[in-house]
Amino acid sequence: MQQADAARAAYAADAIEARRVAYLVSTDPARLDLAAVHRYLARSYWSPGIPEDVVRRAAEHSLCCGLYHDDAGQVGYARVVTDRATFGYLADVYVLEAHRGHGLGAWLVGTLLSHPDLRGLRRLSLMTRDAHGLYERFGFRNAPVPSRFMERVVAPTVLWPAPAAAGGG
């Protein structure tokens, strides 16, 4: 825990923040509303039912960026899992539905990818079902040799089974 606290303090010192009218984008981990992030991710197609403690642990071990609205609070999020030397994986990118269509997703991703800890990475990867156009703006392309890419997937229902129904007799 002390190591995670020290890392958060270091990331806060290097935080990037920018404002556009009523919106703020920030890499300061102290600003994150992880309960709000959990509410979205738990209903997303890529992590349905994810427990809040898993969201918190993932954020603690990632470089995160939040998107905030002056009245609505946190309305977007993105994170990079990285060794900060050679590799990164962009994950959990979202902007709430009511705030889409204003270029905020591109602003969020661009801000995160501009962080000094991500400069010089040899490889940055991601997975998406429907946002290829967004990520292509930042140089992402389909893997040239897809057969070289492998993954191990465990179903969310195995990782986070639904709690048993109370009652019975």
Note down, in words, how this protein is organized.
- It contains 6 helices and 6 strands; from the N terminus they run αββααβββαβαα.
- With 169 residues, it is an alpha+beta fold.
- It has a single domain, classed as Aminopeptidase (3-Layer(aba) Sandwich), CATH 3.40.630.
- It has a 6-stranded mixed β-sheet, sandwiched between helices.
- A hairpin with a 2-residue loop joins strand 1 and strand 2.
- Helix 2 crosses helix 3.
- The radius of gyration is 17 Å and the shape is globular.
How far apart the termini lie comes to 43 Å
Strand fraction equals 15-25%
Taken together, the total number of domains comes to 1
Shape: globular
Quaternary form: single chain
Given the structure, what is the number of helices? 6
List the helices and strands and how they pair.
Blueprint: H1 2-13, E1 17-20, E2 23-26, H2 34-41, H3 52-60, E3 63-69, E4 73-82, E5 87-95, H4 104-113, E6 123-125, H5 132-136, H6 156-159
Parallel strand pairs: 5-6
Antiparallel strand pairs: 1-2, 2-3, 3-4, 4-5
Helix pairs in contact: 2-3
Protein name: GCN5-related N-acetyltransferase
Keywords: Plasmid, Transferase
GO molecular function: acyltransferase activity, transferring groups other than amino-acyl groups
Quick summary:
The chain contains six helices and six strands; from the N terminus they run H-E-E-H-H-E-E-E-H-E-H-H. The protein has 169 residues and is an alpha+beta fold.
